[in-house]
Specification:
Blueprint (H helix, E strand, L loop, with lengths): L2 H23 L2 H17 L10 H24 L9 H4 L9 H16 L2 H11 L4 H8 L3 H18 L7
Helix pairs in contact: 1-2, 1-3, 2-3, 6-8, 7-8
Organism: Sediminitomix flava
InterPro entries: RNA_pol_sigma-70-like, RNA_pol_sigma-70_dom, RNA_pol_sigma70_r2, RNA_pol_sigma70_r4_t2, RNA_pol_sigma_r2, RNA_pol_sigma_r3/r4-like, WH-like_DNA-bd_sf
Keywords: Sigma factor, Transcription, Transcription regulation
Amino acid sequence: MTALEFSFSLDQAQSSLKPFALKLTRDMEDANDLLQETMLKAYSNREKFSEGTNLKAWLYTIMKNTFITNYQRLSRRNTFIDTTENLHYINSSDHVTQNMAYSHFALDDMNDAIEALDDVYKVPFMMHFKGFKYHEIADHLQIPIGTVKNRIHIARKELKTKLKVYKDR
């Protein structure tokens, strides 16, 4: 099989490999990268392919092995072994697990800030938060859609000002 014929066969098989790549990676960009790496490896090793055998099976095997190799490499890279004598890194408090108390305080502050809004702004904001569309809110409150958008904007702006303490958290 010539390089051109092999390249054409790879191109034909590529569409059936993409769903498998997506199933393995669960991410479209990673799937595209895996597919591209598989095609590159297959083309680079085309002399190892036995003509008359199943090309798709060969490509699936390359893809699966490439995925496993990349996964193992990533796992090793993320594994940290503390080699210091006093286990400084393991005992450091750089990474602390937070309990849920902080989020309860934040939620309480958000609810208080929403309750402090004037009803003119709070009602359209809460309706929009619950999933109503602008035109549904306008119909329900019998006000123009522009007024609805303006009131929701003002409510968001006031909430952002009142809750700015949580901006970087």
